Amino acid sequence: MPNTAVDAPIVDPGAIDEDHIHVVAAVIWRDAAEREFLIAQRRPGQHLAHLWEFPGGKREAGESAWQALRRELGEEIDIRPTRAAPYMRVYQRYPERNVLLDFWIVEAYDGVVAAREQQQLKWISTAQIDDYRFPPADRPVLDAIANSAITGRRRRP
Known about the structure:
The protein is mostly beta strands and 157 residues long. The chain has 2 helices and 8 strands. It has a single domain, classed as Alpha-Beta Complex (Nucleoside Triphosphate Pyrophosphohydrolase), CATH 3.90.79.10.
């Protein structure tokens, strides 16, 4: 049952005993030197419309998270991951629904990134994170990648 208030994200949750939507999302790096990664803008009419997010989508019944990631990225941005690793799990309660997000780092893929669902796509650097509005559930991942030793900088508070 959905809650009536937005809670803070729960990072790497254990067992979830309430109704929720299981979503997979990908952190896809374009340029290791510039630390650019892909974001997509949610379309009008969707939950959290116009916010920016990591590409991905809902896991279907009977799918593993890896299968869902491959299917969703093919449908949404026309790529097929060939190598990826689980990164972080975040559980978020919104007033209208609860969401469990499985974030993956996509290390290699086949295809060329293209918007297949008329959504806007952008490659941004970790220095540009604060220039975009993201759903609360994405914040722990954004903070982790912005503050990683690889970036060489810390995000402003």
